[in-house]
Design a protein that fits this description.
Radius of gyration: 23 Å
Number of strands: 0
Number of helices: 3
Helix content: 40-55%
Structural class: mainly alpha
Oligomer: single chain
Amino acid sequence: MDERKRTTREARSHAELLAELEAMEARHREWSLKRRTIPDEWYRLHEQTPCAPKKTRLTAAFDADVVRWYRGLGRGYQARMNAVLRAYMLAVVAREIDVERDGSGQQP
């Protein structure tokens, strides 16, 4: 740009340009983070039936909308929930995800 001062219209357009570029960068960061953190296998999780070790029966309470969504996937929804929980556990153990300790000194 030349050295002259911007007109009001030019200054407004410049500010809008900067805001649009920031929004584009934010969208790109969000997309990039999603691509880095969500393994490709998760997009095929509904097709897989995980072969898992011995199961432990547990009574747990989940949010109603979460249960409704998983049940909507059809047969094997509990195995899919387990696969998501296992992936999170492995990501924490591998230190791909940082978690705060609960005060007991043990990592969840």
